[in-house]
Amino acid sequence: MLLWSSTPDEQLLELAANGSINDPIILEEQVERLLADDRSRR
């Protein structure tokens, strides 16, 4: 996900490493979290 024009944060890296990011509910939560962050407004 390139929403911050940066590398993934620790939370995303951990979810990717353990495969949890493949869960549609978790993925949706993460997209919402990233979009709510000020870094997505650059």
Which geometry do the CA atoms define? globular
Counting helices, strands and paired strands, the structural category is: mainly alpha
How much of the polypeptide forms β-strand, as a percent range?
A: under 5%
Report, as a whole number of angstroms, the end-to-end distance: 15 Å
List how many beta strands DSSP finds.
0
Number of domains: 1
**What number is the mean pLDDT?**
90
Radius of gyration: 10 Å
SSE series: HH
Number of helices: 2
Biggest pleated-sheet summary = none
Helix content: 40-55%
List unreliable stretches of 5+ residues.
none
Quaternary assembly = single chain
Describe the overall structure.
The chain has 42 residues and is mainly alpha-helical. The chain has one domain (10-41). The protein contains two helices and no strands. The model has no long low-confidence stretch (mean pLDDT 90).
Q: What descriptive keywords fit this protein?
A:
single chain, 42 residues, mainly alpha, 2 helices, 52% helix
Set down the secondary structure blueprint.
Layout: H1 10-18, H2 24-36
